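User: Fold this; tokens only.

Assistant: Input:
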Amino acid sequence: AGAEAAAALWNNLGFHLWHIADLAGARAALERALAIDEQAFGPDHPKVARGVNNLGSVLRDLGDLAGARAAFERALAIDEQAYGPEHPQVAIRVNNLGSVLQDLGDLAGARAALERALAIDEEAFGPDHPNVAIRVNNLGSVLRDLGDLAGARAAYERALAIFEKHLGRVHPNVATLVNNLGSVLHDLGDLAGARAAYERALAIFQQYLPAGHSNIETVRRNLRSVKAAMESDGP
């Protein structure tokens, strides 16, 4: 119990440091928590998988994509052994691995991983669950990177519909999806649709977030870009 409490303290410190963007400090704290858990539970325990996954997320933010990939693969292997290959916990690990594969440019691997995570969650929760929306959104991002703009648009529209159903039309998570949809509409040349999406996302974010927040600034940049494109297309 003492070791478990110590690991929890280091883990909580790691999350706090991660939240305030002290990534080196977060890495050190999470490595300490992981070492305690490995000593207490052995290398293949689900608690260890959780610690490895958390460390992988910090490594990803630090830009150590190879380290993050190795961490996510280890966490996935532990949880597959513990829970079986179709468990929602496994979907979380597969999703994280897919995201870092996308960062690494392995888009085919990322797509396969994210499709697997989506299939697990659809089976576990049904087609309209918020977890499914998260998986569909992430898959949409990879499809966009692959140049499958129609597929990306369909994915973002599906994820948006699920979030609107569960969260209402005015929510920060909805705004994120609307912005993503705007980006793919922009890519498709639907400038009016993109502008409407960006304006909607901006209005929602402004209700919830402080002025100057990075999400607001991102949407403002997108809106400026589509307005400039509309002006250059004009008479």
